Amino acid sequence: MPELPEVETIKRELNKDIIGKKIVDVVIKNPKVIKQITPAKFSSQIKNSSIKQIIRKGKILIFGLSTGKFLVIHLRMTGQLVFPGNKEKSRVSFVFSNKKILDFNDSRLLGELKLMDDWRNLKFIKELGPEPFEINETVFGKMLGAKKTKIKPLLLDQKFIAGIGNLYAAEVLFRSRVYPERPASSLSSKEKKLLFKEIKDTLREAIKCGGSSIDQYVRLSGKRGNYAAHHKVYNRKDKPCFVCKTPVKRMVQGGRGTYFCPKCQK
DNA sequence: AATGGGACCTGCGCGC
DNA sequence: TGCGCGCAGGTCCCAT
Fold it and tell me: How much of chain A is helix, strand and coil, in % rounded to 5?
């Protein structure tokens, strides 16, 4: 579900709502989502700590706790953080001293909660590529130039660049007019430059809208994000391209659906 | 090195 | 109404 804009939205809302708050209880309704530590230890080591800071790395959220430990949250496909929660769909509930509850919901149970001494030790995080906002177009161009792989799966590769997922990869390629099967190294310098710009613009616009709510994703408040109204191709199979009216197509690349305009994207 | 397929999971919408 | 299938904002692992 959530890509950089969605996780960033949640991070900003958490920053407003739960910094300094004390967790007095951790209720685990489905232990499957707790990784690398027993559920009992997970609860007991979080209980009675307060939240000092919220960090985002790519699509991962990290809560810095007053004990010095870190709660690492990967929402994967259907993870939600909702505050205050409603318990119903909750897999794990964090109960605060004022009785309000932060719920981790996750219908597909693919999400992960970890408690770590240092989040920097996580293999996935160590291997994470740079975020689009951390590099410039020259660096991005050089990164692409070295890769013969298809551009769309490459954008999904978190080791290559962090934060882009299936939805935004399709959107940025449409906006750059680049066909998703093109080898990365085949992009002209003009195309690389445009792609880099569209990645940053798209992510920024999506953050401004509070992310894209297609199915499961909601903001911390439970409200939907509004960016789906701006999607150009994602989830628009057979609908007319906003530029040329040609029906948007869907194909499969690396097992993932890819939406594109067969006329606009070369 | 680059692909493809399957696995992890649940739940929705669709066509029959 | 009921059932089976395809599909899902992610990532890992294995085979070719």
Answer: 35, 25, 40
